[in-house]
Amino acid sequence: MLAFGLLVVVVLHSYVAQPFVIPSGSMEHTLEVGDRVLVNKLAYTFGDRPQRGDVVVFDGTGIFTDEGKGHSSNPFGKAFEGVGSMFGFGDSDETDFVKRVIGVGGDHVICCDAQGRVTVNGVPLDETGYLYPGNVPSAMPFNVIVPKGELWVMGDHRANSADSREHIAAPGGGFVPEDRVVGRVDWIIWPFGRMGGVDRPSTFSQPGIGRQEPALVPGRG
């Protein structure tokens, strides 16, 4: 029974859902340091793709970090990290990042407009519901067109988030390939007082936000 139970846990962890510990304040107040979140690994399995507004966990190896950084080279260490991550006890790998998707492939994302807002395909975002209090949408101006199959991601605590903006001058332009996404953060499962779902903000459902300009060639703005 114990072996069967462990097998079920391993299968669920590998293919269905995985707990992660939030290690930094880059997504405050949506996600706080030390929160345990459950990542839905099936969210994008059956043809669905990451959507604007989703909070996702992704592997940033070679994009936001150096190749191979953050993993234990000791086989016993690797085994311990794997078992701990199944139950959300261990810290997330240094190569795993959690951010909010702001733009998907083909989107033209700009900061900022005359009112200091981020715009997606010319539609300004109302980020007051999730942006960290006192933060501006971005202190760093940018103008990018997201390549097909990639994502532009930002933390909700903009002043404390090394996100796509931070890596815009890097070879990958700060974009995250969709195939690097581990899954979507759907639930906060601990601490008890913060348990609940993580929803997609309504600002990303505004009319016209998905109206991409076909004349634009995906790439760096």
Give the biggest beta sheet: 8 strands, antiparallel
Low-confidence stretches: 2-15, 69-91
Number of strands: 12
Q: Specify Rg, calculated over alpha carbons.
A: 18 Å
> Averaging pLDDT over every residue, what do you get?
84
**Approximate strand percentage:** 15-25%
Shape: globular
Order of helices and strands: HEEEHEEEEEEEEE
**Structural class label:** alpha+beta
Distance between the termini: 57 Å
Number of helices: 2
Helix content: 10-25%
Q: In words, what does this structure look like?
A:
The chain is α+β, with helices and mostly antiparallel strands and about 220 residues long. The protein has helices at about 1-15, 75-85; strands spanning about 15-20, 35-40, 55-60, 95-105, 110, 120, 125, 140-145, 150-155, 175, 180-190, 195. It contains two helices and twelve strands, in the order αβββαβββββββββ. The chain starts with a helix and ends in a 24-residue tail after the last strand. The chain is about 15% helix and about 25% strand. Residues about 1-15 and about 70-90 have low confidence and may be disordered. The strands form two sheets. Strands 1, 2, 3, 4, 9, 10, 11 and 12 form an eight-stranded antiparallel beta sheet that branches.
